[in-house]
Prior knowledge:
Blueprint: H1 3-11, H2 21-38, E1 40-45, H3 49-52, H4 63-69, E2 77-80, E3 85-89, H5 94-100, E4 116-119, H6 123-131, E5 136-139, H7 146-153, E6 158-160, H8 162-170, H9 174-197, H10 204-217, E7 222-223, E8 228-231, E9 252-256, E10 259-261, E11 264-265, E12 269-273, H11 280-299, H12 314-324, E13 365-368, E14 371-374, E15 379-382, E16 385-389, E17 394-396, H13 405-413
Parallel strand pairs: 1-5, 3-4, 5-6
Antiparallel strand pairs: 1-2, 2-3, 7-10, 8-9, 9-12, 10-11, 13-16, 14-15, 16-17
Helix pairs in contact: 9-10, 11-12
Bound molecules: manganese (II) ion.
Amino acid sequence: MFPRFWAVLTLFSLPIFAVDATEYRQRRAKVCEQLAKQKGILVLYGATEAERGDLRSRFFQEANFYYLTGWSEPGALLLLTPTDEFLFLPPRNEAREIYTGRKLVAGDPNTTGLANLLSSNRFEVTLFQNLDAAEKIYALLNINKSSPLKRLTGTRPVESVASILFSLRQIKSSAELDLIQKSIDVSVKAHKAAWQRAASGLFEYQIGATMTNIYFEAGCERSAYPPIVGSGPNSTILHYNKNDRRMDSGEVLLMDVAGECSMYAADITRTIPVNGKFSPRQREIYEVVLGAQRAAVAAVKPGMRLAKETENSLHKIAMDYINQHGRSLKGEPLGKYFTHGLGHHVGLDVHDPGLPIMPLEAGNVITIEPGIYIPEEGIGVRIEDMLLVTETGSKLLTGALPSDPDVIEKSLHDRKR
Ligand SMILES: [Mn+2]
């Protein structure tokens, strides 16, 4: 229907979808409204090259900073007041630019979308000019960023940006949903490619390579988290990511792998039989996890919670299902093998802001990912899907990747070898 559009897409396989400048401006405007109410100012330190530049990974921006600015260069600072906004950029460093290329600096035409573009050596004086009118300073408290700020702000209270920023980040805009869906779509392709390839004798890292190749080929910047490819006993280790074991026929293969594209993460897990057919015991465990997941997914709607011990707990729905279906080899309920949280928010961060105890709201994007891990049987099963919470329930965003065991076995059986 849009042949020209698609031609452009094919030509530039780099991610070309992006949130536009207007939306970043609207986000800052919402924060400024809050700042006016609280008589506060907000200071964010963007990520620096020193933090990100360990030579193993390329630079990427701090998520809150990116959310408010779309700015993806290192060393920037953001100051928001109830009525104004300032982006501070490092002064020109010609020696550095030999390595990193030409950078935008204060004095260049302002293409940042922010009202005021200043050199970072103007930051302190601008902060002091706005400090007198401020009763509170909002900043990120969880990283060592707060220490230089503490020196500048003296005895004034520094509060977490969480209270004025995280509730915004939890409600995804349609532009964000498009980007998340794009990350999901390529990650689904990665899983399907892994299903094509999985076979006894292969190493876990080979499956990982097949998967990451799909999303790097599509222009994604990085894995949303280190790929978890666990066969047999390794399927029972929650964040196993050495991926160096040779898989064998008769084992399950758990793949928790997804890309981050245009800064937005996906998070998807599937568990398949290496040889194409679940053993009766593997299938039994698989069906318990799937039943628990379906029960929790069916219950997702605004007001429900991901947390364990709370009213309207989705975790309890999944846990009850697991305890009421299947048994350990000793005849005990299986609940003790479900050893992690049920899900989390996803967005710019794979674990996006959002406490499990908070009631879900329409516009949240979350995972639902129950699992059962039985070390003594060498069977670990996790099934993780992503959902958009809607006014009346939820929309499954990862539905293009089957989780029904019959469908999985059929697609493994039908693969071309
Ligand atoms: Mn997850």
